[in-house]
Amino acid sequence: MPHFEIQNRPAPAAASTSRRRNYARFVVLHNDLAGPHDALAELTAPSSTSAPHFYIAANGTITRLVSERRAAHHSGIAQWERRTRNIDLISIGIMLEHALASEAAPQLVALHWLLDALELFFGWEQAEILRWRGPQGQQPRGMLYPYALPPALQPQPQPTPRTLGDELVKPASRARTLGDEADLQSALRLWQFLQEHTYAQLGGSLNLGWAFHLHACKFDLGAPLAGVAKTPLVVGGTSYGYQVFARDTLYNEGRNYAAVQSLAKLITDVAHVDGLALALVKASYSASLASAAARAPARGTLDFRNDWRFHQVALQQHLGPSLSGNYATSGKYAVQVFAADTLFTQRSAPAGCQQLSAIPPTDPAYTPIWAETYAALGGTYDANAPLQQFAAANKLGAPLSMPLVKVFEGNSYTVQVFALDTLYSVAGGPIKRLSALPKPDEVNRWQPAPATPAATSSPDANLLTNVQPSKTPERIQRLMTLATSLLGADAAGLAKYPQLRSTVTGGDVVCADLVTFCLSQIGVQLWGNVADPTGSGRTGRRAANYYRPDPVNQALLREVTNESTWLPGDILIYGIGNLSVDRAYHVNIYVGPFSYNGRACDVVNASQDMPDISAMTKEYCMQTHCWAGHYKWTRRVRVLELEREFAG
Fold it and tell me: What DSSP letter does each residue of 378-442 carry, written as one string?
């Protein structure tokens, strides 16, 4: 029986990117006609920007080029299930020497073995296998189609759950304990897993592309008690988005998604809460109570009462919103459960207020009040449960789940979510806290934008959050506002701007349409047709190739280096071959920092056959060339007329 080990031969970092919280769902097979020596040399060369995850030679040798945890640049934007999408983010790419044939027994056995290993690693029931076909005829993009893998002619060895993974290859003598502080990548994956479980209790799904979630994770605001509000809160004619967390309610004004603000900082006098602060407190109570009511029927008085002792104490001590009404128990207590603590008093002393976290286990109220706290979210109190005892000793607030056994990457964890932290332990090991794990780079780097009005001139364009109007020339401000106002569907952009509608065909704003329209609308002097060595006719203003450095625009346009300062109005062009014999294939425009759908961006992009004018970052555009695996280079050019605006 053959034995397979995976050889590691890493491709450059530019050949892959983060999956951005996507999950691999299937395998894409590619053919290589060059042979392993030449193919692997090309794929691992320092200049390489594309590679599959694995290469399988005809003799069955398996080479791993990209970690299966990352998105390898192997298919890029392609057609699949009648949709055009970035296949790399959701797939594993495998390249095969020549076309896979049934007579290539060692290669086929190796492929079956690798697919079995991937199924174990990702938890697939059965790997879905697709074939890649490159652009053909009038079809500008690659396509995927289902593939029925021939059966292996010889038995293959069975992989173990440890076959794949960053530390690779041979089975280890013991199971890996994810979360060991010595293994940063393991700890980061565990952090993501536990956060997703935490958010799933009352707050929907974790999305690190959202400003609220980045902010809450960075500043340890505890578990979400409801999802992002579907309906904005309107106060004084201004709309506010918000989300309730255990330690605070986060909010933003209008579409300034990155300008995250804190309700706790808004309240300066708990005895006189009014205006926006009062509206947010009431909305927070309503949202968290609705989440709790989905677990257990609500009891008692649910409204926020600013003159009630429980509510004043909760605001003063930042206990978060309520998870139960204010009600009388069947015994002798009045109780209300808040995120960070449960408040109670004897019914004979209605003006009193005690905190569950402040009384010892010997207090007669301890057990019945903990029982009420669990019951508020449909749970059952167990005084002997280790995680409960740890949470009580460390004052972690209300339980949002019961202890559950969760399996992740082959390890079993006992996990329980409390409002202020999530606890976990492995197979009877020590109890640990989610908050003690290292956080991803995107969380550590997060900083909210200033809470100032966006620099815009129309309601549809209020997206810019970091622009300083006093330092930005007026014409550049108009360009930024115009470009960001086009974000969304092409059809909507056409409806708002008759000039744009008159220049495009078929209702599809292509990449050069966007750039040309923005420049022409602020009065930039454009130029005549440029050269096109391919003879395809892409020489005019509706073609990306129009923005290539060319003798025609030499006095109007110049290329700038990557080290040069980025200026709003800079244009990014993308290509495949040398411009002396090829043309530019895509173009978009840098407009400076703005926030769109809760994500920090700075580039506006349109593309043929894609429905939305979209937002990107310059880092993504430079590192992946806008669409991973499709274009081979990115260059930046600058309109000299706009550059002089900044100099003046």
Answer: T----TT-HHHHHHHHTT--SBSS--EEEEETTEEEEEEEBSS-EEEEETT---EEGGGS---HH
Q: To 5 degrees, how large is the angle CA 137–CA 141–CA 146? A: 100
Whole-number Å distance between alpha carbons of 24 and 131? 16
Task: Tokens for 22, please give them.
Answer: 């996507």
For CA atoms 309, 312, 317, 318, the dihedral sign is: positive
pTM to 2 decimals?
0.47
Which residues have C-beta within 8 Å of that of residue 615, sequence separation ≥ 6?
A: 484, 487, 594, 596, 597, 599, 601, 603, 604, 605
On the CB side of 559, CA atoms within 13 Å amount to 12
Show Cβ contacts of residue 494 under 8 Å, excluding neighbours closer than 6 positions.
500, 501, 504, 507, 509
Instruction: Confirm if 376 and 398 have CB atoms less than 8 A apart.
Output: yes
Cα angle 335-338-343, degrees, rounded to a multiple of 5: 35
Q: Name, in order, each residue with C-beta under 8 angstroms of 259's C-beta and a sequence gap of 6 or more.
A: 252, 253, 448, 449, 450, 451, 452, 465, 595
Name which of 500, 495, 630, 502 is nearest 574 in CA terms.
630
Calculate the dihedral angle through the C-alpha atoms of 150, 156, 161, 163, rounding to the nearest 10 degrees.
-100
Cα separation, 569 vs 479, whole angstroms? 7
Angstrom CA distances, 6 to 88, 91, 162, stand at: 21, 19, 12
Residue 93 CB coordination number (10 Å): 28
Instruction: Identify the helix (H) or strand (E) that includes residue 449.
Output: none
Which two three-digit tokens encode residue 586? 């895509």
Residue range 161-216, pLDDT digits in tens: 545 654 333 222 222 333 333 367 788 889 999 999 999 999 888 888 888 999 99
Please, which residues have CB within 8 angstroms of residue 497's CB and are 6 or more apart in sequence?
486, 517
Euclidean distance between CA atoms 430 and 376, whole angstroms:
28
List of residues 6+ apart from 282 with CB closer than 8 A: 303, 304
Could you give the CA distance from residue 218 to residue 185 in angstroms, rounded to a whole number? 18
CA distance 614 to 473: 25
Nearest to 223 by CA among 436, 434, 449, 438: 434
Q: How far apart are CA 205 and CA 160, in angstroms?
A: 31
pLDDT at 160 over 60: no
pLDDT digits (tens, 9 = 90+) for 324-370: 999 998 778 999 999 999 999 988 887 788 999 999 999 999 999 99
Q: Cβ distance 558 to 635 under 8 Å?
A: no
Tell me 460's DSSP state.
Answer: G
Strand partners, 80: 83
Give the integer Cα–Cα distance in Å for 337 and 322. Answer: 6
Distance CA 422, CA 416 (A): 6
Q: Return d(Cα 314, Cα 556) in angstroms, integer.
A: 63
Task: At 607, list the tokens.
Answer: 């593309």
Taking residue 619's Cβ as centre, other Cβ atoms within 10 Å add up to 10
Q: Which helix (H) or strand (E) holds 529?
A: none
Asked whether the beta carbons of 77 and 117 are under 8 A apart, the reply is no
